[in-house]
Design brief:
- By secondary structure, the chain is of the alpha/beta class.
- The chain is built from 23 helices and 17 strands.
- It has a 5-stranded mixed sheet with strand order 10-9-13-11-12. The protein has a 4-stranded mixed sheet with strand order 2-1-3-4, with helices on one face.
- The chain is globular.
C-alpha cells in the first residue's frame, strides 16, 4: 500500500523550510528504495499551528510535530519502513475544531483530481445529476440552513431559487474569491488546499439554477490559488466533469478564471460583476439584484469560496446533518483566520455558537505577547471591535451584530493592552478611504472627514465636539452610502467609541495615549542618573532631536522629535523613557 505523507511548516508563511525538508526526506526514501511506495505532498493546511514542521502519515493516521531534519532517518527507518510510532514526535493538540470546509486540506493532494475522487469527491455532483431534481437540492439546502459565508449571511437556497425562477436561456454562477480583508486568508487557503470541492459546488449551483457558465473571480495577488484552480478546471474537463454531457447527463457547464486587480470594492457583488464585464469596478444601486439581472444583464448567483465548499457535504450527508451543527439561526461551521497578538495564529474551523473566548484562548492560546488580551476585531474593515467583556458571546450572524460587529468573511484579529483603539479605528478607516471607489458622496466625503477627525485626536488636536461629530458622520454614511463598503466603513469607529469612549476622552481631554501608540501624544526623555554618556542615541537620531555632550549630558528637543523610537532601541543602559 502506498503511504502518503503531508508536510507543512506551521511556524512560517515561507515555503523554503518545508521545501528543503521535503528534499531531504525524498533523498532518504530514495536511499531506502521507498520513493515509489511513498507520496510526498506539501499541504496548505492541517489544522495544526505553531508546531514547526508537521507530518501527517496516512493510512497510519500519525501526526508528528516539531520535526527536524535530524529526525528524518529515524522516521524513514522506524515509521515508514518499520511501522513503528515515534511517541516523542507525536503532535498532541486539542480537537476543538469541526472541519467541513477544511475537511480535505492536508488530506488530499490539491493537484490530483484522482486523490479528491478517492475522498468521495464528485459523489455529490453524481447524486444530483442522477436524481435530476433541482427542487430536491434546494429543499436540502433550505433544511441545512446554510447562509452566505461572505459576510451578508443571505440564505443560500433562497438566492439560488430566485435565479432559478427567472425565465432566461442564459444564466451565470460566480465564485467570489476576491478576499480583501486585512489579516484574512480563509478563501485563499481553501482554493489552494482543496480547489476541487469549490468547483464541484459551483457546478451543482449551475445545475440547480439552470446556468451553463461559471466564473472564478480571484484576486491576482493569489498566484498559487489561481494556478491550482486552473489546473483543477483543466483536469475536470479531461475527466468529463466539466463541459458537455457531464457524467453522461445532458447537463453542460463551463468554468473559467477571471483575475481581480486587488480592488476591495470588487468584493461587492455588483462591482465584481462590472469587473468581469471589463468595466471599472463600480457598485450600482439594487434592485435589480444580481439573482434577476446580473452579469451582462442575465440572472447571476454569486457565492463566496467557503459557501460553495459546504455544498457537496450537505448533498452527501443531508441538510438535517448540517443543521445539527451550530445554533438555531447560524447553522454549520465557520472558518476564521485568527491573527494579531495571539499565540497560535492560523485558520480554525469551529461550529457556529462557539464562543469568542474558546477561539482566542482555548484554540489560539491567548496573547502571544504575555500581555492581557484587550479585544478582537471581526469582519475586517466592515466589522467592529469586541472588548474582552463580550468574549463569551457565541459566534453567529445575529449575535455579533448585537454587539456592534459582523461575522464578515471570517477575519479575527486579536489585540492586547499595547493596542490603541483610536489607532485601530484609524487603520481600518484609512483602508476604506483608500479602497473607496468614490462614486457616492457619503462614502467619499464622509470617510475622509472621519479620518481627518481621528488624525486630529491622535495628534493631540482633538476636541470633545469631535466625538459627537464622529457619531453623526458615521450614521450618515450608514444610511446614505450606495454599497456595503460605505455603509459599514464606520463600524470600527462606532464600536471603539461605544466600548472604549474613555480611551478617546483621554486622547482629547488629557492629550495622552494610554497605550502609548499615538506618536504625538507621548514624549521621550533622558534619565540623567542612568545615562552613561555613550552617545549612541545622538548618532542614531535621524531627526537630530538629541543634543548635548558627554560632559553636560544629553537632552531631547520635543519640537524636533519624530517619535521614531530609534533612541530607545539603541540606548544600552535603558536611560531613555517613553511616556
Amino acid at each position: 500500500m502506498i503511504k502518503r505523507i503531508f508536510i507543512r511548516d506551521t511556524n512560517s508563511s515561507s515555503a523554503d523550510k518545508a521545501r528543503d525538508f521535503c528534499n531531504v526526506l525524498r533523498n532518504q526514501l530514495r536511499e531506502k528504495q521507498m520513493d515509489e511506495k511513498v507520496q510526498l505532498i506539501r499541504a496548505a493546511d492541517m489544522g495544526v499551528y505553531n508546531q514547526g514542521i508537521v507530518m501527517r502519515i496516512l493510512p497510519d493516521d500519525l501526526l508528528y510535530g516539531q520535526v527536524e531534519e535530524k529526525d528524518i532517518p529515524r522516521i524513514v527507518s522506524e515509521t515508514i519502513c518499520g511501522g513503528k510510532r515515534l511517541n516523542d514526535l507525536m503532535c498532541h493538540h486539542a480537537a476543538r475544531q469541526c472541519r467541513i470546509v477544511l475537511r480535505n486540506c492536508g488530506v488530499v493532494d490539491p493537484e490530483s483530481i484522482e486523490d479528491y475522487i478517492a475522498q468521495d469527491g464528485y459523489q455529490a455532483l453524481a447524486k444530483v445529476l442522477e436524481q435530476n431534481d433541482p427542487e430536491k437540492v434546494l429543499a436540502e439546502l433550505k433544511t441545512s440552513g446554510l447562509r452566505g459565508r461572505g459576510g451578508a449571511g443571505y440564505p443560500t437556497w433562497l438566492k439560488w431559487n430566485l435565479a432559478r425562477n427567472v425565465k432566461e436561456s442564459q444564466k451565470y454562477v460566480i465564485c467570489n474569491g476576491d478576499e480583501g480583508d486585512p489579516g484574512a486568508y480563509m478563501d485563499r487557503s481553501v482554493l489552494e488546499g482543496d480547489p476541487y470541492s469549490v468547483i464541484e459546488g459551483l457546478t451543482i449551483a449551475g445545475f440547480v439554477t439552470g446556468a451553463s457558465k461559471g466564473y472564478f473571480y480571484i484576486r491576482a495577488e493569489y498566484p498559487l490559488a489561481i494556478e491550482r484552480i486552473q489546473k483543477a478546471i483543466d483536469q475536470a474537463y479531461a475527466c468529463g466533469l466539466l463541459g458537455e454531457n457531464i457524467l453522461g447527463s445532458t447537463f453542460r457547464f463551463d468554468a473559467e478564471v477571471r483575475l481581480g486587480a486587488g480592488a476591495f470594492v470588487c468584493g461587492e457583488e455588483t462591482a465584481l460583476i462590472a469587473s468581469i464585464e471589463g468595466k471599472r469596478g463600480y457598485p450600482r444601486p439594487r434592485p435589480p439584484y444580481p439573482s434577476t439581472q446580473g452579469l451582462w444583464g442575465k440572472p447571476t448567483v454569486i457565492n463566496n469560496v467557503e459557501t460553495l465548499a459546504n455544498i457537496s457535504p450537505i448533498i452527501l450527508k443531508s441538510g438535517k446533518w448540517f443543521a445539527g451543527i451550530g445554533t438555531e439561526t447560524s447553522k454549520g461551521t465557520k472558518v476564521f483566520a485568527v491573527t494579531g497578538k495571539v499565540k497560535n495564529s492560523g485558520l480554525v474551523e469551529v461550529p457556529m455558537g462557539t464562543s469568542i473566548r474558546e477561539i482566542v484562548f482555548d484554540i489560539g492560546g491567548g496573547a502571544g505577547s504575555g500581555k492581557k488580551v484587550k479585544a478582537v476585531q471581526t469582519g475586517g474593515p466592515s466589522g467592529g471591535v469586541i472588548p474582552e467583556d463580550f468574549f463569551n458571546t457565541p459566534v453567529g450572524y445575529e449575535n455579533l451584530q448585537k454587539i456592534g460587529s459582523i461575522m464578515g468573511s471570517g477575519g479575527m484579529i486579536v489585540m492586547d493592552e499595547s493596542d490603541c483603539m483610536v489607532d485601530i479605528a484609524k487603520f481600518y478607516l484609512r483602508f476604506c478611504v483608500d479602497e473607496s471607489c468614490g462614486k457616492c458622496a457619503p462614502c467619499r466625503i464622509g470617510g475622509t472627514q472621519l479620518l481627518n477627525l481621528l488624525e486630529k485626536i491622535s495628534d493631540g488636536k482633538g476636541e470633545e465636539a469631535h466625538l459627537a461629530a464622529l457619531r453623526r458622520i458615521s450614521f450618515a454614511m450608514q444610511k446614505a452610502s450606495l454599497c456595503g463598503l460605505g455603509q459599514t466603513a464606520p463600524n470600527p469607529v462606532l464600536s471603539t467609541l461605544n466600548y472604549f469612549e474613555d480611551e478617546y476622552r483621554t486622547h482629547v481631554l488629557e492629550k495622552r495615549c494610554p497605550a502609548r501608540k499615538c506618536g504625538r501624544l507621548f514624549r521621550y526623555s533622558i534619565i540623567q542618573e542612568k545615562c552613561k554618556r555613550c552617545g549612541l542615541c545622538v548618532r542614531n537620531c535621524p531627526s537630530d532631536a538629541i543634543s548635548g555632550n558627554r560632559e553636560k549630558g544629553y537632552v531631547i528637543d520635543e519640537a524636533k522629535c519624530s517619535r521614531c523610537g530609534l533612541c530607545l532601541e539603541t540606548c544600552k543602559p535603558n536611560a531613555i523613557l517613553r511616556g
